[in-house]
Amino acid sequence: MTLKERVLNRLQGKEVDRTPVGCTTTYGVVDFMKKCGCERPLADTDPLAMTELALAGHTYGGFEWVKAMGWDIVALSEALGCELGTPRIDRQYYINSFPYAEGVEGLEFPSDFLSRGRFPAFQENLRLLRERVGEQMAIFGETEGAFTCAANLVGPEQFIKWAIKKPDQLTKTLDVTKEAAIAAANFAFDQGADFFVFAEPTSGPALLNPRLYEKLVLPIEKEIVSRSRGPVVLHICADTDPIIEFMCQTGAAGISIEEKADLKRAVEIAHRYGVKVFGNVATATTMFSGTPEEVYREAITALENGTDFLCPGCGIAPGSPLENIIQIKKARDDFFQ
Question: Among 34, 138, 149, 282, which residue's CB has the most CB atoms within a 10 Å radius?
Fold first, then answer.
């Protein structure tokens, strides 16, 4: 069984020999950059450097699938007009302005969307990755989701206020960002990606009431998934226990959750919907500042709790030690030995 077959078979609910291990979101890790010789900010914009850093996750971290489309979750927002802050080796691109904070008049989905921002670089990155890994490993693309993109355009606080007081403004924004999300996913599938991840930190219960998630986010996510030409994985940060069932109702093939969520319960709910679960070794604490032994123990616990894909719970912090990262695969190998 190839690494690609293991990943795609598990995503499709088929039997595999062991739980796949990797990272669901970003892994712009400084130790990976030093090992492969491709550091950000070059690795944020140059397709070859982007590709080498993606492959470093496999070569040095033991990941069994590889990431395309860069090391941040602001690509949609950038293409729709957000100004980005300058990255450095240990800091990814970030939103530096909210261009529609005063209102969304004039906001439309541009016909040249896939020619904007870094999408041309992503196209070459996907081509290079497919050339390098062939049929041996799965490739995934990732961007922010429609809801998070919308919050980036108008500002998170403003957007939450609109969700309650100005739903018409909210709807206008989401009509555009929804199309951007669908275009990005299908762009990746057209370039050979095997699945696509939408990161939606802004839609989690830490910022949005679960009732509003059901009313506002769920219908948008359903449409995005239904119009995507391949499997979608939905990642939401923090404690997602109150919305796990809604996440599974989106039609996504998989959900990715952090350590604050109850993994065992999430697996039970997700499997009733035929959905797979990615997670959930703690990134901000254990992987970043814990010991290798602590990472190993958390990975074993995640396997015991039934995770379908053994991963960090979120994107790996740039300063996370390589020695900690490799414990995830070590734990998986020992578990199945």
Answer: 149
